[in-house]
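Revision sheet: structure tokens.
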Amino acid sequence: MKIAFLAAKTPVAEAARVALVARYGDAPPQEADFIVALGGDGMMLETQHRFLGRNPRIYGMNRGSVGFLMNAWREDDLPQRLQAAQAALVHPLRMRAHTATGTSAALAINEVSLLRETRQAAKLRIFVDGKERMPELICDGILVSTPAGSTAYNLSAHGPIVPLTANLLPMTPISAFRPRRWRGALLPSEARVVIEVLEADKRPVSATADSTEVRDVHRVEIREDRSIGMTMLFDPDHSLQERIIAEQFTA
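Predicted:
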């Protein structure tokens, strides 16, 4: 079994990498049967972005803080854990952000978020599958999340947690002012979302796909890209699906 070890840039994660390499060796990532990412959720996302389009089997071990996407740290029996691990296939969101000077594209494993850049609230118009669904939303921002990302920023913004197999994308407003009681929507995974920024010069808005930010956007298109799959591996007693369900019963 060829295993590649990648670590976050922290002393704890690097020490874990050194210990594991000493026991199991270290293969180049392009030749490895498994890639083991050591760190927190940020490291898992960084590793997935690094190998987008290649779909290697990535197994994370928590040497960071939250570690929702990671397995428990344990140095022993790693080959056996990798062989027994359950796969979770996730698809990213593709963002196309249009500005006054051009268009930028990026992929998001967690979410695409739009946020106001100044003291003034954003004004947004929302289209789903070509149909105007909300002519004006006044808010701090809005996000569209993947099921895997529904427990991250989306949950903090009081959006719904979505199981991996639900084929739904949560759309969640951030501090909605008008309509004040709108709590967002659950969209089918094949939905095409377009968000237009109203009064873009007066009320500038940025768009971010995970860690890729585009400033002063006028229009953002979001859709799930099912041509790209990413495989994360989880211990059988703590699968990603189980974690998403359990999170909904956490106070």
